[in-house]
Amino acid sequence: MDNLSSTASLTMSTDGTAIACEQRGTGPAVVLVGGALCTSASDAPLAELLAADFTVFTYDRRGRGGSGDRAPYAVEREIEDLAAVVALAGGEVMVHGMSSGAALALRAAAAGVPVRGLSVYEPPYETGARARADRRARVHRMASLLAEDRRGDVLAEFLRAAGMPAEALYGLRRLPVWADMERLAHTLAYDHEVLGDGTVPTELLATVTGRVLVVDGGASPSPMREAARAVATALPRGRHRTLTGQTHEVAPHVLAPVLAAFFAG
Questions:
Q1: What Pfam families does the database record attribute to this sequence (predicted)?
Q2: Which of 253, 238, 165 minimizes the C-alpha distance to 204?
């Protein structure tokens, strides 16, 4: 199979929800777990780079893209989804999680999903008391907006909190991609659930016995980098790596060789 080609498939989660997957490349299996507002397509650039050395599986988390969804939401169901993709990939595999997908991957590893090596990029935990209070207020506002089906306002709240300038947000709302993002707005509540109270879950991380690479960007905001270091410290076999000049929107061509070296080690 050409590394740049992909094969689509469906796998069934424990509760009967269909999870849409794509497979690229040949070699040891790696599963990519996307972050907020991401689908399997979002992970395609990184997957194509890793496919030179690995069989890479990307998937749509529940409620996104080609995957199904069931109410009520529970983090345990998302862990089961990832476990189903890991089983499809052949069992004990390598996993990489991005942002909230990193938090989900860490929770899955702690729950016993068979992960041979785990890397995470900037899990978005909060380390300061003020930041945690701001997060609680933001999550409450977004939940209220979702209850009123004000998806555009939910997105705007999330993107403002992520640091998007007002002018950029104004322009984005007028692009065709905005409608695609609105369709995923309800899954932001899922990401909030995955992150729990937003603090670094040190007790849970202490139960992750496998080796974990925690990566951040040298140009990311200092609270994000502090959270990455705190996660690495809490993990029994955690390693920390900073990518010079990178932000939360890490360049796939910079990240890919770092992951390849870690997974091959």
A1: Abhydrolase_6
A2: 238
